[in-house]
Amino acid sequence: MSETQATTAATAVKPLFLNNPEEQEAKLDFVEYWRTLRKHKWAIFAFALVVTLVAGVIAFVSTPIYEAKTTLLIETNKQKVLSIEDVYGGVGASREYFQTQVEIIKSREVSLKTIIKLKLFDNPVYDPRVPPKGFAAFVKQIGFATEEAPKEWTEEKLAEAVLAKFTSDLSIEPIRLSQLVVIRFASPDAALAAKITNSLAQTYIENDLDARYQMTRTASVWLQEQLTGLKEKMNQSEQILQGFREKQGIVKMQENAQNGASQQVEQLQMRLIEARTRRAEVESTYKTVQEAASAGDLASQPAVLVSLQVADAKRQASETQRALSEVSQRYGKEHPKYVKAESEFKSASDNLNRQIELVVGGINNEYQRARSTEKTLEAALSSARGSVQSVNRKEFELGVYEREADSNRQMYDMFMKRAKETNVAGDLQTTVARIVDMAPVPLKPIKPNKPLIVAVALFMGLLVGIMLSLLMELLDNTLKTTEDVENRLKQPLLTVLPMLDSKETERNISGRMVLDAPNSLYAEAIRTARTGVLLSSVDLPSRTLVVTSSVPGEGKTTFSSNLANAHAHTKKTLLVDADMRRPSVAKSYGIDPLSLGLSELVAGTAKLSDCLHKVDGSNLMVMTSGAIPPNPLELLHSARFAQTLEVLAQNFEIIIIDSPPVELVSDAMVIAAITSDVIFVTKAVSTPYPLARKSLQRLRRANAHIVGVVLNSLDFNKAEKYYGEYSGYGKHGYGTYGSTYGGTYGSGNIAPAAKKTV
């Protein structure tokens, strides 16, 4: 990096996020869908091809099915000599009639007659006596099918057994806005299909003729039987009617027999209504007075106060009571004036009570008179009604006889007319329908439609493949882009490390990428992380950085090794392997794993100089993990470890600690609590963001200061192509750096490891 760029980076205000969620432009969902489809396009095409091939094979090995079609015209303009709908079953040109005929064609009776007529049960396709094949035969062989007792087959039973398959292959559809019905039948045998449709239409016509003929004969016989009895019954009823009239001497009683009696009844009813009304009014007053008498409050009742004597007595009682009250306030009870006033008050009260009793007695007498009047009128009305009812009974009995005679006469006339019409109907049998178009033998099968099946299978395969790819992408909760890191983890992005090839991922090569391939994209990404770390706290004389991740295999050791080498160019740097569960730093630099290291230094069994190892070709000092203690967490949590870090901070400007993953052990949180900064490494398209978010939350709870997140192992070409990661590295050819960048870091030649586009 040039001096101008370094100065600009040092003086510019560094934003917290490279992709601030608040400043992001709204993305169209279909763009993301398109990238997902591009990513899985070959899998989608392969799935669609497999589905198409399977469907094609099934279509080409399937038995061809032929369909025959017969067109039938339902007649509605028959010669209607008869007027009885019972004989013809509701013949008419209405829609209901047409629909009824269609349902008759579909009926079970017509189908069974057609099956028996053609003896379809002798055809191998429909013969129920043929042993089952395919899956049914397999089920029977393995013993799951129920053994049935041998049947004695008759034509009727065979037809019943064939009926289900016959109706499933049969289709009957009326043509809209016409009187035509199309009968279709599908069968592997083309000739049989045509024969069945024609035979079904003819069977329907013959069945209708036979049914109407049988109905006509039945009706004719029944009518003749009924006429004889009806004639005798009519004669008997007329004789009984005439005899009753002569015996009772009745001549048009409905007009003049009840005039006087009905007027008397009406007058009595009016008087009775008036009497009941009067009795109800008096009874209401009577009940009110009785309730008031029980409560001792007769003086306040309106029915009592309406009497002038009661009102005057009540007024006198009130005046004497008021006078007594005034005297009692001035004189004692023995004073003559008090005695006089008290005597007058008692006299007035007694007078009031007598007047009230007289009024109450008058009300009781009036109530009794009203009840007596009502009962008298009820008895008179009952007597008048009895005489009227006697006449009504005679008229009712006469009406019964007259209606019975009229009914018998009408019934006889109607049956006589219908008998004549039915005799004529037997000679006028017309068909209910006629065949317009006989079914020819079909030449081409209707199914399987091979081109359509293949096309639909291809379309459905593509559709299902697309849905599966979108579902897989929706269920993929890993971090794929820099935007995912900042939007989902809510942490600033420190740098993005490219994916290394299989050779570069070896431990002894990947840990020295900054040294061995300084012009590579990976080395430049490491230097970007170094710049971010230095700019985060410029004034600190010493920095202790902890590098950790969520789970193993995310590249934290490789990143910490290369970051330490990058810092070693400008500052005195120490790389400490604190991952005592799976130490890896020693292998990266070819150091003996059994050499003295961090555990011996903290325990005080070795000196600092004995635990430091210099990296060849670099100013970097490395401290391995040393001997692995029984419980590494106790060692890292001890006060001696914190004192050891203070001593190291006095000797080095940058200390980078490679710690264990956060989700496996608590070592990283213990170390992060006593260091200045934490760098969190996550692997692209591998680490689920909920897991990374949980790890960061645990670090924050330990009061760790997180500098940023490193997105490791990102394939820039795929990220730009499938995820919208516009880094520009793959597009603009920045896979390697030339002499301009190489000279800055002391190497004019491009190392072999950097010649590959990463």
TrEMBL record:
Polysaccharide chain length determinant N-terminal domain residues: 27-118
Tyrosine-protein kinase G-rich domain: residues covered: 402-471
Coiled coil residues, start to end: 227-285
GO CC entries: plasma membrane
Record's subcellular location: Cell inner membrane
Protein topology in the membrane: Multi-pass membrane protein
Domain AAA: 547-682
Enzyme class: transferase
Pfam families named among the record's database cross-references: AAA_31, GNVR, Wzz
GO MF annotations in UniProt: ATP binding; non-membrane spanning protein tyrosine kinase activity
Superkingdom of the source species: Bacteria
EC number(s) on file: 2.7.10.2
InterPro entries: AAA_dom (IPR025669), Bact_polysacc_biosynth/exp (IPR050445), GNVR (IPR032807), LPS_length_determ_N (IPR003856), P-loop_NTPase (IPR027417), Wzc-like_C (IPR005702)
Keywords: ATP-binding, Cell inner membrane, Cell membrane, Coiled coil, Kinase, Membrane, Nucleotide-binding, Transferase, Transmembrane, Transmembrane helix, Tyrosine-protein kinase
Ranges that cross the membrane: 42-66, 452-471
Catalytic activity: L-tyrosyl-[protein] + ATP = O-phospho-L-tyrosyl-[protein] + ADP + H(+)
Main localisation: membrane
Family affiliation: Belongs to the CpsD/CapB family. Belongs to the etk/wzc family.
PANTHER family per UniProt: FERRIC ENTEROBACTIN TRANSPORT PROTEIN FEPE, TYROSINE-PROTEIN KINASE
Protein name per Swiss-Prot or TrEMBL: non-specific protein-tyrosine kinase
Originating organism: Rhodoferax aquaticus
